[in-house]
Amino acid sequence: MFSALAAYFTDKIHLTQQELELIEMHCHPRKLKKKEFLLVEGEVCRFSAFVVSGCLRSYRLDEAGNEHTFKFVIKDWWIVDNESYSNGTPAQFNIQALEDSELMIVSKESFYFMLEQMPQLKMLVDRLQQNSYNASQQRIYKQISASPEARYQAFVDTYPDIFNRVPLHMVASYLGMSRETLTRIRSHFAKSK
């Protein structure tokens, strides 16, 4: 599994063989079965995870027990509960496998150690965090300004690999609409093609 993480890094930054060995020393493989949790609300997130294969989601439950999907992650993406990870506080999100998944896990301590040892890794992480922040800002803007149809189209255009891999009610939750609304919109788009 480490070869997928090594390929991810070497595609983005130059790493020596020693640096790759250091990363391999600090990252550990983990397999999750479909519906298995990587993190449960209330636990402290002390790791970040790179997805080698599979699909996971991050979500919260509201007071009424309704699920609100925050994000989906697939191959070559990272997942972490940022607030819990950064502050050492109990997680407010659950992270669950939607398919059998293979991950590479790195503890917070190991990750910070690697950042100190490899300045180019720190630059990559800064760039990835900036991209993630920008994507979050765009998502918030679309949620408050775009029509349900526009949000649906943007999701399909941006994440074509995810749409057909996750249950419809989870996509609806991510888009901030009911399953019925999403079904109606999908039907409308299918007829117009």
TrEMBL record:
Residue ranges annotated for the Cyclic nucleotide-binding domain, each copy included: 30-117
InterPro entries to which the protein is assigned, alphabetical: cNMP-bd_dom, cNMP-bd_dom_sf, RmlC-like_jellyroll
UniProt lineage: Bacteria, Pseudomonadati, Bacteroidota, Chitinophagia, Chitinophagales
Organism (species): Chitinophaga silvisoli
Pfam families noted in UniProt: cNMP_binding
Top-rank taxon, per record: Bacteria
Protein name: Crp/Fnr family transcriptional regulator
